[in-house]
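User: Before I run my own analysis I want an independent prediction to cross-check against. Here's the chain; please return only the structure tokens and, at the end, one sentence I can use as a sanity check.
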Amino acid sequence: MTRLAKLLRVPTPADRRPGQPWRPGTAPPAPIDPDLPSADIRIGYACCSTLGQELDSQLDALVKHGVPRDKVFSEKVSTRVRIRPKFEEALRTAREVKAHARTAGSSLPCTR
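Assistant: Structure tokens:
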């Protein structure tokens, strides 16, 4: 794994090395109350690596956390494929939303 991280130049946090106990990552954002007005814009991405896998559980989880179905980018693509069109489209959309928010004078948090 270390060799792969060096090859891909992926920084690995010190507490995520082999032999370290597992700990949960960042929790997903809380669902949005549909009755409250909000400027929060959520974009989702779901991916399966084989044709036998289904996206339904990922899509349901994204909807549960306030991501509308029309803002979810999904694809079935092998892990060997480096080009993921829907992922790139999701990133492009997020960047456009963020750029528009900046020019509109409001702030918009952006997470990966």
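Sanity check: Residues 14 and 20 are 9 Å apart (CA to CA).
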